[in-house]
Amino acid sequence: MRDTRESRLLLVLLIAIAFALITVDIRGGQDSPVDGARQAAATVFGPIENGVSSAVNPVGNAISAVRDSGDRHDRIAQLEHDNTELKAKLGSDDRNRSRLKQLNKMINVAAEGQYGIKGAEVIAIGAAQGFSWTVTIDVGANDGIKRDMTVLNGDGLVGRVTTVGPDTATVLLANDPDFTVGTRMESSDELGFASGQGDRPLRVELLNGKAKIKKGDRLVTFGSQADRPFVPGVPVGVVSRVDPSGGGLTRTIYVKPFASFTKLDIVGVVVQAPGKDPRDTVLPRKPKPTPTPTVTVTVTPSESAPVYDEQQ
């Protein structure tokens, strides 16, 4: 349309009519005289609006997805954080379960041997007194601990108390070269003295040079006078090697200790000795030998084998 005086007048007229219709529609409310026209327009232009909306909505959804992706990232980060905390908690629970298992084993040993024990935790290893195999435990004189008390755990003999402070004590481990304990062989009652050799098996000198000992035999503590420093019956270890008898007055054997001195955690100090020697009752049950399967082969004669006549 060309920009003429007539066209400008027509535009002004159309605008005036539009404002008049809007005013009439507003004032008429639900009874507006243009309501029918509006519904007709909705009928005509509604499908077009839906099509446009369908075309635009994916874009809007994509924008919303981008906007929400930050929220999802935050949620994932929070979940990862919670997962890490849960794993740490489970790890802590695993350690607690392990310590509870150690404590239960030690209580069973104390019950079998009728030992009165004071539970303790190993809080340090090391060499406050040089290069000795020692550990520090978190009980001391205030807990009734005294020098030369037997220390054990759920596996067997750990060592003896050497020095005592108000709230801690030092334990000399059974594998220390300066450690010696009297031993008794299971069943045979052969006596000897076990000495530590560091990370090697204990060395035991049996008093009977002709004692019949074999690999797999087990030893317990013989006990000391007045039960200090050692109470009787505490499991010591298993014979791993026997030196050939040379006709001497003693016989040397090597013993793998029951206790693992590099993995000590929960231990018990024997504060009350048993009323009587428990003998071998504290030793763990021997594992049952695994039966060796036997195979029997039966040969069945074949039907096609030749048959010989004895009269020929």
From TrEMBL:
<dbReference type="InterPro" id="IPR055342">
    <property type="entry name" value="MreC_beta-barrel_core"/>
</dbReference>
<comment type="similarity">
    <text>Belongs to the MreC family.</text>
</comment>
<comment type="function">
    <text>Involved in formation and maintenance of cell shape.</text>
</comment>
<protein>
    <recommendedName>
        <fullName>Cell shape-determining protein MreC</fullName>
    </recommendedName>
</protein>
<dbReference type="InterPro" id="IPR042177">
    <property type="entry name" value="Cell/Rod_1"/>
</dbReference>
<dbReference type="InterPro" id="IPR007221">
    <property type="entry name" value="MreC"/>
</dbReference>
<feature type="region of interest" description="Disordered">
    <location>
        <begin position="275"/>
        <end position="312"/>
    </location>
</feature>
<feature type="domain" description="Rod shape-determining protein MreC beta-barrel core">
    <location>
        <begin position="130"/>
        <end position="270"/>
    </location>
</feature>
<dbReference type="Pfam" id="PF04085">
    <property type="entry name" value="MreC"/>
</dbReference>
<dbReference type="GO" id="GO:0008360">
    <property type="term" value="P:regulation of cell shape"/>
</dbReference>
<dbReference type="InterPro" id="IPR042175">
    <property type="entry name" value="Cell/Rod_MreC_2"/>
</dbReference>
<dbReference type="GO" id="GO:0005886">
    <property type="term" value="C:plasma membrane"/>
</dbReference>
<keyword id="KW-0133">Cell shape</keyword>
